[in-house]
């Protein structure tokens, strides 16, 4: 604490500021006023901006050799705001479009569950985090920024997709988001506290023998994001979140298949 790393600390606090600003804009959303749908977009982009700060602070701390336990704890506190509280509050705002009280109560329960899972995910990471670089190749469970990105991209679809892509009907998109958001948020909440392994995307992009190939793919993805914006971000976040559990299920199903029996009259042992 005698030598506080100024730049990494400011970047970490920038994460929290973005999360708080996302909450402030989300509080202005009124389900009865379509003009306030733009605050869905503002809040979503602020959550995505918090991810940039969250990525930069650790990178700068390692680059300047100022990584510390204080920085790790501060990072988790800021992540709880930006990737726990803010997405949960946005889900509550999405849930206000439901007219039935039971549906609103169910969405409120899902929002609380998401918040609890995000906090548990961050606490588990702090306990299990190891200084060994080999242990940092994969996450155990869906990272909280990725889960928050899934909720944020749903808000992007809800608030701004139809204006950018004219071939999509705005009312159909909003109706689909209204139906899918509670179930999707519940799914990513459970994935956060699961043991499904997830690769570290930034590590694969910046390290390894094939780093230039990875960077080429990253540039291609950035080009797709620039062209389709909200839709591309939705595909990226949800594709990352769902690909690993689907892969695990596929591998489990293949292991459950019995081995082919040997043909009668053939000796399986070498002579």
Give your account of this protein's structure.
With 271 residues, the chain is mainly α. Helix 1 runs antiparallel to helix 2 (38-63). It has nine helices and two strands; from the N terminus they run H-H-H-H-E-H-H-E-H-H-H. 73% of the residues lie in helices and 2% in strands. It has a two-stranded antiparallel sheet with strand order 1-2. The model has no long low-confidence stretch (mean pLDDT 82). It has a single domain, classed as Four Helix Bundle (Hemerythrin (Met), subunit A). It has helices spanning 6-26, 38-63, 69-95, 101-128, 144-164, 170-192, 201-206, 211-228, 230-256, and strands at 138-140, 197-199.
Features of the shown structure:
two-stranded antiparallel ribbon, 73% helix, 271 residues, single chain, mainly alpha, 9 helices, Four Helix Bundle (Hemerythrin (Met), subunit A)
Q: Shape from CA axes?
A: globular
Secondary-structure element string:
HHHHEHHEHHH
Find the CATH superfamily: CDP-alcohol phosphotransferase transmembrane (TM) domain
Helicity level, as a percent range?
A: over 70%
- Major beta-sheet overview: 2 strands, antiparallel
- Unreliable parts: none
> How far is the N terminus from the C terminus?
71 Å
The number of distinct helices, counting runs of at least 4 residues, comes to 9
Number of strands: 2
CATH class, anyone? Mainly Alpha
CATH topology: Four Helix Bundle (Hemerythrin (Met), subunit A)
For the largest beta sheet, what order do the strands appear in spatially?
1-2
Structural class: mainly alpha
CATH architecture: Up-down Bundle
Please state the average pLDDT score.
82
